[in-house]
Design goal:
Layout lengths: L1 E9 L3 H11 L4 H10 L3 H21 L6 E10 L3 E6 L5 E6 L2 E9 L39 H4 L1 H4 L17 H4 L1
Antiparallel strand pairs: 1-5, 2-5, 3-4
């Protein structure tokens, strides 16, 4: 049995709401409610209210348990857009679109999952003997020689060049150079 809850004319863009509805699609209702509480967005607060309403509708109107509910569909459709004007330079104006959204959540009762018959723990399957009975082992890794300490230090490796030491800036002028 499907249970529905809807929030119409929510003052938020449907694009922003869809980010959150995609995350909870197909999850159990209680788990989705916890996930929505942890998301730091305005849309998640609105979706949390709609989801809580849908769960309450299922419990009170249809005598369903909240633990058995799954989110079948979580949709954010576009509502009407309120058009406003914002004054601009030299007597002009710019249009501001204040978008609204219709948030709709449909819950359904989860079908009980049939459990697979469990195997007895004492019984093991035997594998048929293969034609290749030899085992191959991996060759040990060849260790690369470590580099000399003199190669790691730029000062000793490039002593003849006039490069600056680490931390010195070419534009930095010291008092000994100005004299």
């Amino acid at each position: 049995m499907d249970v529905k809850a809807e929030h119409r004319y929510a003052k938020i863009s449907a694009f922003k709401v869809r980010e959150v509805t995609r995350e909870i699609q197909g999850l159990r209702a209680e788990a989705a409610l916890e996930i929505v509480r942890l998301i730091p967005k305005k849309a998640s607060r609105l979706i949390g209210k709609v989801l809580a309403s849908a769960i309450a509708n299922a419990e009170n109107n249809n005598n369903l348990r909240a633990g058995n509910l799954i989110i079948k569909q979580a949709v954010a459709g576009e509502g009407p857009t309120m058009k406003r004007m914002h004054t601009r330079a030299r007597g002009g104006g710019a249009r501001i679109n204040k978008r609204t959204a219709h948030i709709k959540i449909i819950l359904t009762e989860a079908e009980p999952v049939a459990e697979k018959p469990k195997k007895a723990k004492g019984i093991k399957k035997t594998k048929p003997a293969s034609s290749k009975s030899t085992k191959t082992t991996a060759a040990p890794a060849i260790a690369a020689p470590s580099p000399d300490v003199s190669q790691l230090r730029a000062e000793s490796a490039d002593a003849t060049s006039k490069s600056l030491a680490a931390g010195e800036h070419p534009e930095k002028v010291t008092s000994s150079e100005t004299l």
